[in-house]
Specification:
- The chain is globular, with a radius of gyration of 23 Å.
- By secondary structure, it is an all-alpha fold.
- Helix 2 runs parallel beside helix 14, helix 7 crosses helix 17 and helix 9 packs antiparallel against helix 17.
Amino acid sequence: MSASAGEHATAVQPREQWTGQVGFILSAIGSAVGLGNIWRFPGVAYENGGGAFIIPYLVALVTAGIPILFLDYALGHRFRGAAPTAFRRLGGGRLKWLESLGWFQVMICFVIALYYTVVIAWAASYFVFSFDLRWGDDTAGFLTGDFLQVGEPGLSFTFVPAVLIPLVLIWLAAIVVLAFGVARGVQRINVIFLPLLVVAFAALVIRSLFLEGAGDGLNALFTPDFAALADPDVWIAAYSQIFFSLSIAFGIMITYASYRKRRSNLTTPGLVVAFANSSFEILAGIGVFATLGFFAFEQGVDVAELEGLTGVGLSFITFPAIVSQMPGGPIFGILFFGSLAMAGFTSLLSVLQVVSAGFQEKFGLSPRQAATRVGIVSMILSVLLFATTSGLIALDTVDNWANNIGIVLSAVLAGVFAFWILGKGPELRYHLNAVSTFRVGGVWTLLAGVLAPIVLGYMLIQRIASLVVEGYGGYPDWYLAVMGWGTVLFFVVAAAVLTGLPWRRSPDSFRPWPPLPERSPRPDAAPSEGGRS
């Protein structure tokens, strides 16, 4: 079967495509490099063995991150669709309802987009605040009081104008980009923003290295504590960081790979994306801890005595305080919050593209129709839930359940169904090797199909037990039941409902390319050139 025949079987309308390999790689890196690289990795590394953390981090990258990334690429590229389409075609006639796993991933992206956009709006606001250091001397009080006006856990309808206005602007920008489609919208923004991000953040890192006390900060980060390697929690932290950082297992890379041309290299670009993402994380660690070293020096304390080394606290409390004290602080703040906003926006586009693509394929919508309808609904919900005085608490709770329960559960189920129940490992491996220059062997099947589900399953059980027994953040049990477990319940119910709705055009007449040879080949055997015409 020729590639053109396979495309005709896929859909009546031509499928959108990246303009080439560079556009795909930049877009995939733009998705992977996000807020977590800047505000999560440095603190996680510091708290889990410092320099010694690089060992479990690299092990996790090679044994789980890259194998699952390749699995996502294989699913999206072979079955030519967003997550619901890909999983339905993976299940074939036996398990068409596996489409629901794809919708589960779409709903994860939908919810993440609702609050992720808010953080980008905060970063954009702080970018403006950097010009006059508006946060003053009490950065914690400014964030929770003047800026966010944080109230008690609950559902508030008291809107915060300082959050509402930039939030709406970010949503409008995202809708416009998505409406232009994959190549003219998402790819074009990544081609512009990613180089700008690298230049801005590199300038920030170079500046931080010349601050007094920078060496102490770097020593705090990179001095190895090899005893920490005996702690299973350190290894779990490494797998968690890799897993959440690479944008894997919740539909993004499945969707992105589906826009690649039939004869497109998958594994080599995957390695580029994975190591580029990790390189940026290490660069972020250097910049963040060099700056924290300066902050500790100014206060006359050790780096270990500082608070707010990860997440919201690091970005919106600690860093503004540092900017206020350092020479040329406004410029440093502009670079930092500008980088944060750009990294967040490119990742947001990838999350929203998963949702848009799923609805386009299911209901026969154009990119403009899907972007407008999905975007407007998302914007309204985002404003109602996260632009109010209860927004920060809601964000913290929903994010914890979406990431630690939703995404991990999705990854475990994908591995179990693809490898254990359907036995599609050899077919997916064959597909990767048929189109790629870097070929994967049986080790990939072992890592993606056995090790990753087991490790992630253990993480999932551990996290569920912790949330049930200890709760989260000191928030009331009723609030965690509604905003935490309720979020996971929403994923399940929405996935079931969307699976039950009829398709505008049935995706079941599809035939994968390249076809598997009649005789069971070695999974690493490539098709003849005639079969790839």
